[in-house]
Amino acid sequence: MGDTQTGRPRGRRREADRNDERLMQAAREVFAELGWDAPVSEIARRAGIGMGSLYRRYPSKEMLAQRMRIVGMEQLVTQARTALAEEPDPWAAFARFLRDALSDQGAGGPLLPLVGGRLPATDEIVAAAARLRAALDDLVDGAHRAGVLRADFASADVPLLLEHLTARIPVTDERATALHLRYLDLILAGLRTSTTDGPTALQSPAPDWAELSELWNAPKK
Amino acid sequence: MGDTQTGRPRGRRREADRNDERLMQAAREVFAELGWDAPVSEIARRAGIGMGSLYRRYPSKEMLAQRMRIVGMEQLVTQARTALAEEPDPWAAFARFLRDALSDQGAGGPLLPLVGGRLPATDEIVAAAARLRAALDDLVDGAHRAGVLRADFASADVPLLLEHLTARIPVTDERATALHLRYLDLILAGLRTSTTDGPTALQSPAPDWAELSELWNAPKK
DNA sequence: CGGCACCGGAGAGGTCGATTCCTCTTCTCG
DNA sequence: CGAGAAGAGGAATCGACCTCTCCGGTGCCG
């Protein structure tokens, strides 16, 4: 059945779908590298499609970015769930997720685009954020319960950490990713509970998800 | 004597000097928050001076930024030297320097501006970078020799770490600094040599100063 | 083979920012 | 005290650049 309902896309229609994928891909890369100010034309160029096609699919730059944010978050959710499912050890799952998120193997794009916050919050975005939160909670709670992750680390720290770790530095994508992973290793070392260290409590309070959503969404205009 | 030579600045001249300080201060803040694309007018606004005055002092935005980079680097050098002088314990000195650099107490500005690399390298910049390197080498070597800092951490990691840690997030300056310090604590925990952990070697190779200077300076045009 | 739906890309119109220019103020000095 | 220098301030200039629209060309279907 499945195929019968929508009909397997063929010809022109198939190209449109492929274009859409390339678009998301390109948008991820470009926004990650240049930030919100990246010219739309650059996205089109990298996707190998014309401006016309891009704007037919998404009515505005903002809509494009919104969609990309959702796709990005869903990708993180998938990576979190996969890590959880494939790694029996809670610490391994946690560490693997962070590494996957940074190297972003699935998408091929070198960086992940939590991107230009300060866009109006769509219902879809809110929903995606909720799913992301749930997934990260699972990951972090699991590690906490296993006693391998320092207790003063919250799940809301994860997106912020990723955002810090993906700081844009003007080197080749490959080297940038390598450096990101290097510093992730450092942070993982600091995150792991060690029975020897006592006085290493974090001094500033953890962020919570309310703070994150304020940070990600425009002040409800 | 001393005063006789230049004459203690008075009146208009004195105001000009004060303006210059405010300018550097404002530039630090604004560039730190908005990045290289920050409008010059915003810097002037925050410094409380007019565009005319700004442009009489610095012939272009680029020159202004260059000077600011030098001032920023010198400030880091001072902080490093101070930490080294005032903290007998190598680890304490190292940690204190990083904390100082992030909270930037001396300047009053909330963030430090390693800023928009990719500007042509002035001789002055090269010299300042060399002094910075020397200071950081001292700090890192001291900790290494004391055996309190993991061996695979290089002095060239310091500027990169700072750059990562100061990732711009759109919250109040105070909260941003708090979060930066939070993640610094995490990294410090990971940086400290612990005799218990073996398998935590960093996977990506350390950066070196040659890489940094490429990253900071425009490809000699 | 004709028509439709879609593609790519040049260009209109508008925003925004670096730099300049001109006016008004504050000192300095004879 | 008045003229002139040295600045201060900020509006106006001159482009650069970007988003989004419009249009001629092309491949696929019947």
UniProtKB/TrEMBL annotation, chains A, B:
PROSITE patterns: HTH_TETR_2. Residues 39-58 bind DNA. The keyword DNA-binding applies. The keyword Cytoplasm does not apply. Residues 17-76 form the HTH tetR-type domain. GO terms for molecular function: DNA-binding transcription factor activity; transcription cis-regulatory region binding. Keywords: DNA-binding, Transcription, Transcription regulation. InterPro entries: Homeodomain-like_sf, HTH-type_TetR-like_transc_reg, HTH_TetR, Tet_transcr_reg_TetR-rel_C_sf, TetR_SbtR-like_C. This is TetR family transcriptional regulator.
